[in-house]
Specification:
The chain is about 35% helix and about 35% strand. By secondary structure, the chain is an alpha+beta fold. The chain folds into 2 domains: about 10-115, Immunoglobulins (Immunoglobulin-like, Sandwich); about 115-170. The longest helix is centred in the last third of the chain and has 57 residues, at about 115-170. Its main location: membrane.
Length: about 170
C-alpha cells in the first residue's frame, strides 16, 4: 500500500491463526523518505486498544496492558507473546511520515483454544482400555496355567489308574 507522499507499507501475512499461549509475529515492512511514527491498535468485541507507538530510531511507548508481551522491530513488525482469547481481532498499523503522509495496514488474528477436556477424555479412555487389556492377558495366562496343571494332574491320575488295572489283571490270571 503506498500513499502519495512516499510512504509504503507491505503486510506479509494479513490473516494469522494461532492457539492460546502461542507467540505470534505481526509482520510488516514499511519504507518512507523521512522519519516515521508507527502505531499499532487492536480492535475486537472488547473495544479498541492502542498497543504500541514508536518513532523509528527513538522512543517506544507500549500500553500498560501489553508491557512485557510486545516486542517491536525496526521494520514496523511487532511480536505478541503468550496470546489469549482476548487477543483475537483486527490489528491496525498506521505509519505516519514526518511530512504528514500515512500508510495503513490490517491483520486479522484468530485465536483458537485447545480443548483439553477432549484430550483428557481420550487419555482416560486409552488408559482404561490398556488396563482392561492387561487384566484380560493376566486372566488368559492364569487360565492357561490352570489348564496345564489340570492336564498334568489328569494325565498322572490316568497313568496311575491304568497301571493298577494292568497289575490287577495280571494277578487274577
Amino acid at each position: 500500500l503506498s500513499a502519495p507522499g512516499g510512504v509504503s507499507l507491505i503486510v506479509a501475512q494479513p490473516n494469522i491463526n494461532a492457539t492460546v499461549a502461542q507467540n505470534i509475529l505481526l509482520s510488516v515492512e514499511y519504507s518512507c523518505r523521512g522519519v516515521a511514527t508507527i502505531e499499532w491498535k487492536h480492535v475486537s468485541s472488547w473495544g479498541t486498544t492502542k498497543i504500541v507507538e514508536w518513532r523509528s530510531g527513538n522512543y517506544v511507548n507500549i500500553s500498560t496492558g501489553y508491557k512485557g508481551r510486545v516486542t517491536t522491530f525496526e521494520n514496523g513488525s511487532i511480536q505478541l507473546l503468550n496470546v489469549g482469547m482476548r487477543d483475537a481481532g483486527y490489528y491496525f498499523i498506521t505509519v505516519t511520515e514526518e511530512y504528514g503522509t500515512n500508510a495503513y495496514g490490517t491483520i486479522i488474528v484468530n485465536i483458537y483454544e485447545v480443548l483439553y477436556e477432549d484430550l483428557h477424555f481420550v487419555a482416560v479412555l486409552f488408559a482404561f482400555l490398556a488396563a482392561i487389556s492387561a487384566i484380560l492377558v493376566c486372566f488368559m495366562w492364569l487360565c492357561n496355567k490352570s489348564l496345564h496343571r489340570f492336564q498334568k494332574t489328569t494325565a498322572h491320575k490316568l497313568t496311575a489308574s491304568t497301571t493298577e488295572e494292568i497289575e490287577l489283571e495280571t494277578i487274577e490270571c
